[in-house]
Amino acid sequence: MGSALETLCGQAYGAGQVEMLGVYMQRSWVILNSTALILSFLYIFAGSILRGIGQEPEIASAAGKFALWMIPQLFAYAANFPIAKFLQAQSKVMVMAAIAGAVLVMHCLLSWLLMLKLGWGMAGAAVALNASWWVMVVAQLVYIFGGACGRAWSGFSFEAFRNLWGFVRLSIASAVMLCLEIWYFMVLILFAGYLKNPKVSVDGLSICMNMLGWAVMVAFGSNAATSVRVSNELGAAHPRTAKFAIVVVVISSFALGVFISIILLVFRRQYPSAFTSSTDVKKLVYELTPLLATSIVINNVQPVLSGVAIGAGWQALVAYVNVGCYYIFGVPLGLILGYKLDLGVKGIWYGMLSGTVLQTLILFWMIYKTNWNKEASIAVDRIRKWGGHSKDHVRHA
C-alpha cells in the first residue's frame, strides 16, 4: 500500500510541489497503521488458518508461533514504507543506505547472540527482526524531523486526514498489484507443503526462495529507482528522459541477472551446504538450480517493469494483468504439472514461471505502446487532484 507514495511523491517532487510530500507520507501512515491493525488478526490466528487449510501440523504450529512474535514488525513496516518512499522521491538514498547498513550489522550480531549464543531459536530471530526494523524507523525519523528534508517536511498536519478515501483507493490498487506479485512465489512454498515429502520440499524451496530473494534485491532497488525517475520526469513533463531511463535500467538489470545466474550454476553443488546438512535437501536444491537461475533472470527484469508502472500510476491496470497471468494462467498450470502430471516441485515452479514470463511480456508491450507525452499530461492532472498546485510552466515544459 505504501507504493502509492512512489507515484504521488515522485510526480509532486518532479513538478516542484515539494511541500506535499510530508502530507502524503502522513496520510499513508494513517492508512497503513489502520491496515496493520486489521492484518494483525491474521498473524494471531496464522497457526489455526494453516492447520485449517491442511498444512502439516508441525509446520503450521511453528509458523503460527513465529507470526505472533512478528506482530511488532508489522507496525514497523507500516511506518517504514511511507518513510522510504518519501525519501526516495527526493533521491535521498545514501542516508537510507547508511542507516540500513548500520542496522544490518546490528541485526547480524543480535541474531547471533539471541539465536545461537543464548539459544532462543525462532523467538530470538523474531526479537532481532523486530528490534532491527524499529531502530531503522527511528533513525530515519530523526533524520527527517531534524530538518534535512527542507520544505518536504514542515511538521504534522491535519491535511493528512483530508481526502483519505481517495488515497485509500490508490493505496489498495498499489497493494493489489504488488501483493499479487509477491504472494505468487510465496505460494510455491505453500503448495510444497502438500507434496509427498513436504519437509524436504519446503526446505528445498525455502533455500531457493532465499537465493531468489537475495539475487533480486538489486532489481528491487532498480524498481524503486525506476519508479522515482519515471515519476519525477513525468511530473516535470520530460517524457523523453523517462523513456531513456527505462531502456537503461532494463538492460542493466537483465545483464546483472544473467551474471548472478551463471555464478549459481557454476557453484550449484556447493552453495546448498551453506543452508542445510540434509543430503535429500541438497539434492533437491541442486536439481532446482537451473529453474532458480532462469527465475533470477526473469525476476531481475520484471520488478523494473513494475517500477515503470508505479512511476506512471498504472497500479490498477497492472493488478488486472497480474490476476490473469499469475492466478488464472500460472497457478493452475503449475498445479496441473506438479500434481496431475506428478512433476512435483519442478512442475509447480515450471507453471508459475510461465505466468511470470507472460506478465513480463505484457508489461513490455504496454510500455512500448505507451504515449509518454500523454502520460506527462496525466501526471500534471494527478498532482492537481491530490492537493498540489499545478503551474502553467510545468505543463508546457
UniProtKB/TrEMBL annotation:
Keywords: Membrane, Transmembrane, Transmembrane helix
Pfam families hit by this protein: MatE (PF01554)
GO molecular function: antiporter activity; xenobiotic transmembrane transporter activity
InterPro entries xrefs: MATE_euk (IPR045069), MATE_fam (IPR002528)
Chief subcellular location: membrane
Subcellular location(s) of the protein: Membrane
Domain of life per record: Eukaryota
Annotated membrane topology: Multi-pass membrane protein
Keyword tRNA-binding attached: no
Cellular component annotations (GO), alphabetically ordered: membrane
One annotated GO biological process: xenobiotic detoxification by transmembrane export across the plasma membrane
Segments passing through the bilayer: 29-54, 66-87, 93-115, 127-146, 166-192, 204-224, 244-267, 288-311, 317-337, 349-368
Family: Belongs to the multi antimicrobial extrusion (MATE) (TC 2.A.66.1) family.
Name of the protein: Protein TRANSPARENT TESTA 12
Gene: TT12
